[in-house]
């Protein structure tokens, strides 16, 4: 199909030229100004390089108006944008550059040292597209719907990143799916607080809102008080971010009195959402929704209604509208209600595959079905819960225990701020769950409380045999996912130094008993 995400962007520039498109700090660009600036950016890139259709343009910088202008300029040349993570070290950046082989790296001056080890030419992000007046004419580049728009590295907590390819067709299908699931996405005003190197930034905080005729307010340097003020002053109605951002806003002294009445689409994912966090935002009249998605599904692909999110906080919805969800067993057969299995997704709103990796693309996307590696359960009403990862299963006495299910159960307890469940060695069962928990300073939560809460809600074999209370935040990746690998290494000796709950002993934490 001959489609392009640039078409709706051009249409909005013609239909609402004086409406706000993007803003960051003091710089605010209307749709007319954004169109002109991105054309100037394309001409700036073209004047300094030979970038053309299919070439890669890497961008290294925080999410700002300059980043957006540069990316749109590259797309107008038919290039493929490759966001680089501004928090990555030189080694990770070098691997990302080697993987995508960009023709140029457009880099913010403050981050120039990160690209210093590369032989790839660089341009200054700060000045791209900054010229005055109208832009010179730029010849339109023919686009096929199957042409790549971006290559985004996955943000998995283990393994080497893989380059996920988004095409014009796949993105347009995804954004249409968003609107079918939640019509308020159309013409939404989003607050973007995430790096463009992740789906939350590139899709929820850039391409999605703009393609759908909305606008985006950027906050490149995270500050919860500023975020609360921006939601109020700019009447933001769309925020998609990891739980950490919502937690820090809720903990800020300004939260109780902040006017957040404009915020109608608030969703999070990637980590368990605590009952306390849902309550705090619910008290502000905001239904915080836990969504499901992954880079390969082009951000959130399953979005619950506010009513379902409030009634069943651990539910991520009922599946897609265009995209079809199935939960299958090891033989690929559909699971019965309440039977855990791997989530597979088919439909038009999926990524095209992995950059220059046919084998992995076939393994993951073969047959038109995305094998997510996530374990889910669908109940008799069709509501879906995520209970774990195929690689995050604890096999205890030959029975599968899904860490995510335990994490969500423990997160229900008031006062629990963070929780991660890992498997540790066990003489009786071979492996057993251990819960690593961080609680609020004034929380009255003990290991017995946690074990009892799990016992009331789960099968007895799922109860964590060790509970360790932490005084510092859990380690996270740049994408804000918990680093399970490092936790398994650090707490591998917990059975030797801790106390097993089944043996009337608990871990040596500050709140242990």
TrEMBL record:
Pfam families: AMP-binding (PF00501), AMP-binding_C (PF13193). This is Long-chain fatty acid--CoA ligase. PANTHER family: LONG-CHAIN-FATTY-ACID--COA LIGASE, NONRIBOSOMAL PEPTIDE SYNTHASE PES1 (EUROFUNG)-RELATED. Keywords: Ligase. The keyword Cytoplasm does not apply. GO terms for molecular function: acid-thiol ligase activity. PROSITE patterns: AMP_BINDING. It comes from the Bacteria. The keyword Nucleotidyltransferase does not apply. Residues 405-478 form the AMP-binding enzyme C-terminal domain. InterPro entries: AMP-bd_C (IPR025110), AMP-bd_C_sf (IPR045851), AMP-binding_CS (IPR020845), AMP-dep_synth/lig_dom (IPR000873), ANL_N_sf (IPR042099), ATP-dep_AMP-bd_enzyme (IPR050237). Residues 11-355 form the AMP-dependent synthetase/ligase domain.
């Amino acid at each position: 199909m001959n489609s392009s995400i640039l078409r709706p962007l051009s249409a909005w520039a013609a239909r609402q030229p004086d409406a706000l498109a993007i803003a960051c700090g003091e710089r605010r660009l209307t749709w007319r100004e954004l169109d002109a600036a991105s054309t100037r950016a394309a001409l700036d890139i073209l004047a300094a390089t030979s970038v053309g259709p299919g070439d890669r343009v890497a961008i290294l910088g925080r999410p700002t108006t300059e980043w957006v202008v540069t990316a749109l300029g590259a797309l107008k040349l038919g290039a493929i944008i490759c966001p680089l993570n501004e928090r990555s070290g030189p080694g990770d950046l070098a691997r990302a550059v080697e993987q995508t082989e960009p023709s140029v790296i457009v880099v913010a001056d403050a981050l120039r040292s990160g690209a210093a080890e590369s032989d790839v030419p660089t341009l200054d992000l700060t000045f791209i597209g900054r010229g005055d007046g109208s832009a010179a004419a730029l010849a339109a580049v023919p686009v096929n719907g199957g042409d790549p728009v971006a290559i985004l590295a996955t943000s998995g907590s283990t393994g080497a990143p893989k380059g996920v390819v988004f095409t014009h067709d796949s993105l347009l299908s995804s954004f249409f799916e968003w609107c079918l699931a939640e019509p308020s996405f159309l013409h939404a005003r989003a607050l973007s607080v995430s790096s463009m190197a992740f789906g939350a930034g590139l899709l929820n905080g850039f391409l999605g809102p703009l393609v759908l005729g909305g606008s985006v307010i950027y906050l490149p340097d995270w500050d919860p008080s500023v975020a609360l003020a921006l939601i109020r002053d700019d009447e933001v109605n769309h925020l998609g971010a990891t739980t950490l951002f919502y937690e820090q806003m809720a903990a800020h002294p300004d939260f109780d009195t902040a006017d957040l009445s404009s915020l109608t689409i608030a969703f999070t994912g990637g980590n368990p959402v605590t009952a306390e966090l849902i309550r705090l935002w619910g008290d502000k009249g905001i239904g915080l929704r836990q969504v499901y998605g992954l880079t390969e599904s082009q951000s959130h692909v399953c979005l619950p209604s506010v009513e379902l999110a409030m009634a069943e906080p651990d539910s991520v919805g009922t599946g897609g509208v265009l995209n079809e969800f199935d939960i299958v067993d090891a033989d690929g057969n559909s699971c019965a209600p309440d039977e855990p299995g791997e989530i597979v997704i088919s439909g038009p709103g999926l990524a095209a595959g992995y950059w220059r990796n046919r084998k992995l693309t076939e393994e993951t996307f073969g047959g038109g079905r995305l094998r997510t590696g996530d374990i889910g359960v669908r109940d008799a009403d069709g509501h879906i819960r995520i209970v774990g990862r195929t690689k995050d299963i604890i096999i205890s006495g030959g029975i599968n225990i899904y860490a995510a299910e335990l994490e969500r159960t423990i997160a229900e307890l008031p006062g629990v701020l963070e929780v991660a469940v890992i498997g540790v060695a066990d003489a009786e069962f071979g492996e057993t769950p251990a819960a690593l928990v961080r609680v609020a300073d004034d929380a009255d939560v003990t290991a017995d409380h946690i074990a009892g809460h799990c016992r009331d809600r789960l099968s007895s074999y799922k109860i964590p045999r060790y509970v360790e209370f932490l005084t510092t935040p859990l380690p996270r990746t740049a994408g804000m996912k918990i680093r399970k690998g490092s936790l398994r290494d650090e707490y591998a000796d917990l059975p030797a130094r801790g106390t097993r709950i089944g043996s009337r002993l608990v871990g040596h934490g500050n709140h242990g008993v």
